[in-house]
Amino acid sequence: MNKNVYSIVLTDNVIRAVDAEAYRRGTNRSNLINQILAEQLSCVTPEMRMREIINSAETLLHRELLLMQQNSPSVLMLRTALQYKYRPTINYRVELEREPDTYLGRLKVQIRTQNMLLTECFNLFFREVALAEEAAFLKKGIRGYNAALSTDCFTRKLLNDPRLNDEEKGGIIGEYLNMLNDAVRKYFSAPDELQYVISRYNAEFSAFIKENVI
């Protein structure tokens, strides 16, 4: 969506109110004014499209995934507690693209712990997840799977299906997060059963992408 520069004259009290609201929403003055005008004139903005996707994803999330405070319409942040000593947590962050092409956005999964053994378990699990997901996509003839794993963080890009509307895309994201988080929780409750959990996840993910691309 193209943007151009226009000059408008606003009173000081309006600008103060706009700036305060923009700060509250985690955006800037220009974006907020654009959103307000678009809503009043029934125009669709990237922010409105992203908000629709995020809202649709939220409605499908299992109760184990707890919503975290977020101010941006392009971001969905979640947390889950693991059934493991010290009750460590894993955070999920979905960041959407304003103008998606091949990718709708990206998913970032990060563990919050000082326990090196737990970090190693996290890395081992998501290394297997990445291999299983890429293999499932290749079997379906889909290329473009993009994932990376660092010490305590797994990141992958979310593939975009232009045939779907925003509500459908959000629903697919929500279902995918539920499926992934269920596997995460099963693994950390029984780390010795990694291959069993991954084989189950591989079967579920392969069945899932027969109807969906994510």
Describe the structure.
The structure is a single chain. Helix content is 48%, strand content 17%. It has 214 residues and is of the alpha+beta class. The protein has two domains: 1-43; 46-208. Strands 1-2-3-4-6-5 form a six-stranded antiparallel sheet. β2 (75-81) and β3 (89-96) form a beta hairpin. The longest helix is centred in the middle third of the chain and has 24 residues, at 116-139.
Provide the fold topology.
Elements: H1 12-25, H2 29-40, H3 46-58, E1 66-67, E2 75-81, E3 89-96, E4 103-112, H4 116-139, E5 147-149, E6 153-159, H5 166-189, H6 194-208
Antiparallel strand pairs: 1-2, 2-3, 3-4, 4-6, 5-6
Helix pairs in contact: 1-2, 3-5, 4-6, 5-6
**Helix share bin:** 40-55%
Mean of the pLDDT scores?
A: 89
Question: Major sheet: size, sense and barrel closure?
Answer: 6 strands, antiparallel
Number of structural domains: 2
How big a fraction of the residues is strand?
Answer: 15-25%
Structural class of the secondary elements? alpha+beta
Question: What would you call the shape?
Answer: globular
Give the H and E element order. HHHEEEEHEEHH
The end-to-end span amounts to: 23 Å
Number of strands: 6
> Rg from C-alpha positions?
20 Å
Q: Return residue spans where pLDDT drops below 50 for at least 5 consecutive residues.
A: none
Number of helical stretches of at least 4 residues? 6
Strand order of the largest sheet: 1-2-3-4-6-5
